[in-house]
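TEACHING EXERCISE
Course module: macromolecular assemblies
Task: Read the component lines below, then compare them to the predicted structure of the full complex.
Student: A.B.
Group: 4
Components provided:
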Amino acid sequence: MTPAPLLYTYRRCPYAMRARMALLQAGVAFDAFEIVLRDKPAEMLALSPKGTVPVLRLPDGQVLEQSLDIMRWAFVETGDTGGWWASAQSASNFELLAICDGGFKHHLDRYKYPERFDGVDSKVHHREQAVDVLLKPLDAQLQSAGQLGGQGPCAADIAIFPFVRQFAAVEPGWFGELPLLALSRWLGRWLIHPLFEAAMPKLNVGQPLPFPAPRS
Ligand SMILES: N[C@@H](CCC(=O)N[C@@H](CS)C(=O)NCC(=O)O)C(=O)O
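Instructor-supplied answer key:
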């Protein structure tokens, strides 16, 4: 029997979340190997020495070591039957994704962990920058349709949502007061979306399991 693709993952990593959600949405059966970042398994590092998750090992030995490559593979490999990949292919989505993985992630890290970067005094600066670079344009985009795919969700929604979730969770009370209503509705819908729930089971570290794992 052909082995299932093996995903090295970390539950709370937003890049790994987008990969798990894409694989699940595309209907790809895979095994998930939960890691701890401070003690990465040697077999993962042998496949992908850069040492970040997610990493997907395919049955033919090919290794995908970027979350967006894993998403693309998942949808394209399965014929993109739901159109989640095709409907993400717009200039505005490309731009939002580039900002998410670039400037927004930069400011998110410095907002969330100011002590690890330029100090607590810069926290508010990075919070404001994060709102300006991504959250305002994302809100504007979502005002015309509730999802980045237009009428329905697409790969860009699940690629960006885990990062906005992380941002909102730093100071939920403050975030809730932001006048970005379309964004807030979009986030609220994703937080209770069955696809997100299915992507978030707690797995034992180091035990590859068919995904989604049975609930404990
Ligand atoms: N460009 C990569 C970034 C992945 C990434 O940075 N993942 C983080 C966890 S959220 C990681 O593995 N960091 C390594 C570490 O902290 O040791 C992707 O899109 O997959």
